[in-house]
Predict the structure.
Amino acid sequence: MMEIIPAIDIIGGQCVRLTEGDFAQQTTYDSNPLEVAKRFESHGIKRLHLVDLDGARAKKPVNLAVLESIASNTNLTIDFGGGIQSEEAVKQAFDAGAAQITAGSIAVREPETVKSWLLKYGSEKIIIGADFKGTNIAISAWTEESKYPLQDFISGYVKTGATLFICTDVSKDGKLQGPSTNTYRHLKLTLPEAGIIASGGVTTVEDLEQLQEIGVKGAIIGKAIYEGTISLKDLERFIC
């Protein structure tokens, strides 16, 4: 079964969503991320994608207290991203209760560093963030499309032992216009050994059904939950 992974993005300790990663397009949905996480868990959700947006800007984790609170008060398996730019940050996240961390921009800028983390912590604990626009990797906080093809980026990390990839179409993130199903289908066909987690644009139950049919490992759902286009009740049938 495809894993259902709701997202909580944190700014100032509160649960927010951005559109296309733009801090100027921010909506605050809840002042208590722990209560949001508990609601997810009450519907059978087992995974959580927790993003420290303050940390992403500061280039170091800022909202570790939120991570620690959710980890110690729920049984959710949490992957934590945002500000993971050093081994110290990786240790801080694991110490605060993260089961996994997502290596985002550093995976593009410093592949040797991330490869060392894969060797030290294992491929189940280090997720590679593959943010993309079109067919290329997106960099500079999503404002710039690189010349680095998404497929080559993932393939390179597969060769070094990575197994999990959060693939976010930044042109669709937060827009509620549907995910890049064709991109995920192509990745599954050409890189079957890569565990692809689809992110960006998931809007309806039909989107989830298509992604499950493609065979992605997981789907991250953010704004669709908060705006009510997918209910937590809808998600229950996708959960083992």
Notes: Residues 2 and 212 are 6 Å apart (CA to CA). The mean pLDDT is 92.
